[in-house]
Amino acid sequence: MLEGAVGDKTKVFGKVRLADIVSPISGLSRSEWQKTFNRIGSKHIDFALCKKDDLSPLCVIELDDSSHKKSERKIRDDFLGKALTAAAIPCIRFTARASYNIQAVRSEIAQATGLDLQAAPNMPSSVEA
Protein backbone atom coordinates (compact mmCIF):
# COMPACT_ATOMS: atom_id res chain seq x y z
CA MET A 1 0.00 0.00 0.00
CA LEU A 2 2.82 2.44 0.81
CA GLU A 3 4.57 1.70 -2.45
CA GLY A 4 1.30 2.41 -4.24
CA ALA A 5 0.94 5.69 -2.38
CA VAL A 6 4.43 6.97 -3.22
CA GLY A 7 4.90 5.35 -6.64
CA ASP A 8 8.48 5.36 -7.83
CA LYS A 9 9.47 8.42 -5.81
CA THR A 10 10.93 6.53 -2.84
CA LYS A 11 12.04 3.16 -1.53
CA VAL A 12 9.98 1.68 1.28
CA PHE A 13 11.69 -0.42 3.96
CA GLY A 14 9.89 -2.26 6.74
CA LYS A 15 10.98 -3.06 10.30
CA VAL A 16 14.01 -0.77 10.26
CA ARG A 17 16.31 -0.52 13.26
CA LEU A 18 16.29 3.05 14.59
CA ALA A 19 20.10 3.02 14.81
CA ASP A 20 20.23 2.52 11.03
CA ILE A 21 18.72 5.96 10.43
CA VAL A 22 19.78 8.01 13.48
CA SER A 23 22.93 8.08 15.58
CA PRO A 24 23.89 9.50 18.98
CA ILE A 25 24.95 13.13 19.02
CA SER A 26 28.66 13.82 18.80
CA GLY A 27 30.59 15.02 21.81
CA LEU A 28 29.37 12.37 24.24
CA SER A 29 31.81 10.44 26.39
CA ARG A 30 32.46 6.92 25.16
CA SER A 31 30.21 5.40 27.85
CA GLU A 32 27.37 7.88 27.24
CA TRP A 33 27.63 7.31 23.47
CA GLN A 34 27.42 3.54 24.01
CA LYS A 35 24.49 3.88 26.40
CA THR A 36 22.63 6.07 23.91
CA PHE A 37 23.46 3.77 21.00
CA ASN A 38 22.18 0.77 22.96
CA ARG A 39 18.83 2.57 23.45
CA ILE A 40 18.41 3.38 19.77
CA GLY A 41 19.86 0.05 18.65
CA SER A 42 17.13 -1.85 20.43
CA LYS A 43 14.25 0.08 18.83
CA HIS A 44 12.64 -0.52 15.44
CA ILE A 45 10.30 1.56 13.33
CA ASP A 46 7.52 0.13 11.21
CA PHE A 47 8.50 1.74 7.88
CA ALA A 48 11.15 4.08 6.53
CA LEU A 49 10.62 5.97 3.29
CA CYS A 50 13.97 6.78 1.72
CA LYS A 51 15.21 8.72 -1.29
CA LYS A 52 15.52 6.40 -4.24
CA ASP A 53 18.95 7.63 -5.31
CA ASP A 54 20.94 7.62 -2.06
CA LEU A 55 18.57 5.86 0.40
CA SER A 56 18.69 8.75 2.87
CA PRO A 57 15.57 8.79 5.07
CA LEU A 58 12.68 11.07 4.08
CA CYS A 59 10.28 10.06 6.84
CA VAL A 60 9.27 7.29 9.19
CA ILE A 61 5.82 5.73 9.32
CA GLU A 62 4.52 4.17 12.50
CA LEU A 63 1.32 2.14 12.71
CA ASP A 64 -0.37 2.55 16.07
CA ASP A 65 -2.46 -0.35 17.30
CA SER A 66 -4.05 -0.68 20.73
CA SER A 67 -0.68 -1.53 22.32
CA HIS A 68 0.36 2.11 21.85
CA LYS A 69 -2.07 3.06 24.64
CA LYS A 70 0.01 1.21 27.25
CA SER A 71 2.29 3.34 29.41
CA GLU A 72 5.53 1.54 28.46
CA ARG A 73 4.67 1.90 24.79
CA LYS A 74 3.95 5.61 25.26
CA ILE A 75 7.41 6.01 26.78
CA ARG A 76 8.93 4.21 23.79
CA ASP A 77 6.92 6.33 21.33
CA ASP A 78 8.01 9.52 23.11
CA PHE A 79 11.67 8.47 22.93
CA LEU A 80 11.29 7.58 19.26
CA GLY A 81 9.68 10.94 18.52
CA LYS A 82 12.46 12.86 20.26
CA ALA A 83 15.19 10.89 18.47
CA LEU A 84 13.57 11.46 15.07
CA THR A 85 12.97 15.16 15.79
CA ALA A 86 16.64 15.56 16.75
CA ALA A 87 17.61 13.89 13.46
CA ALA A 88 15.12 16.10 11.51
CA ILE A 89 13.25 13.03 10.23
CA PRO A 90 9.46 13.44 10.15
CA CYS A 91 7.38 10.71 11.78
CA ILE A 92 3.92 10.02 10.42
CA ARG A 93 1.60 8.02 12.62
CA PHE A 94 -1.37 6.10 11.28
CA THR A 95 -3.88 4.11 13.27
CA ALA A 96 -3.50 0.44 12.33
CA ARG A 97 -6.53 -0.78 10.39
CA ALA A 98 -7.57 -3.36 7.83
CA SER A 99 -7.64 -0.90 4.92
CA TYR A 100 -6.29 2.55 4.11
CA ASN A 101 -7.33 5.40 1.85
CA ILE A 102 -4.34 5.75 -0.45
CA GLN A 103 -5.03 9.41 -1.21
CA ALA A 104 -5.09 10.24 2.51
CA VAL A 105 -1.81 8.36 3.05
CA ARG A 106 -0.28 10.04 -0.01
CA SER A 107 -1.36 13.45 1.28
CA GLU A 108 0.18 12.89 4.73
CA ILE A 109 3.47 11.72 3.18
CA ALA A 110 3.58 14.64 0.73
CA GLN A 111 2.92 17.12 3.53
CA ALA A 112 5.64 15.65 5.79
CA THR A 113 8.29 15.24 3.09
CA GLY A 114 7.53 17.93 0.54
CA LEU A 115 7.41 15.31 -2.21
CA ASP A 116 5.09 15.94 -5.16
CA LEU A 117 3.10 12.72 -5.11
CA GLN A 118 0.59 12.42 -7.91
CA ALA A 119 -1.93 9.61 -8.09
CA ALA A 120 -0.77 6.81 -10.33
CA PRO A 121 -3.19 5.95 -13.14
CA ASN A 122 -5.57 3.10 -12.31
CA MET A 123 -4.60 3.26 -8.64
CA PRO A 124 -7.48 2.23 -6.31
CA SER A 125 -8.58 4.84 -3.80
CA SER A 126 -8.19 2.42 -0.90
CA VAL A 127 -6.42 -0.83 -0.34
CA GLU A 128 -6.44 -3.50 2.35
CA ALA A 129 -3.33 -3.84 4.46
How much strand content do the residues show?
A: 25-35%
Question: Could you say which structural class the secondary elements and strand pairing correspond to?
Answer: alpha+beta
Strands ordered across the widest β-sheet: 1-2-3-4
Number of helices: 4
Can you characterise this structure?
- This protein has 129 residues and is α+β, with helices and mostly antiparallel strands.
- It has one domain (2-128).
- The chain has four helices and six strands.
- The strands form two sheets. Strands 1-2-3-4 form a four-stranded mixed β-sheet, sandwiched between helices.
- The relative contact order is 0.20.
Q: Could you give a quick summary of the protein structure above?
A:
With 129 residues, the chain is of the alpha+beta class. The protein has helices spanning 2-6, 30-41, 71-86, 102-113, and strands spanning 10-17, 44-51, 57-64, 91-95, 99-101, 126-128. The strands form 2 sheets. It has a 4-stranded mixed beta sheet, with helices on both faces. The protein has a two-stranded antiparallel ribbon with strand order 5-6.
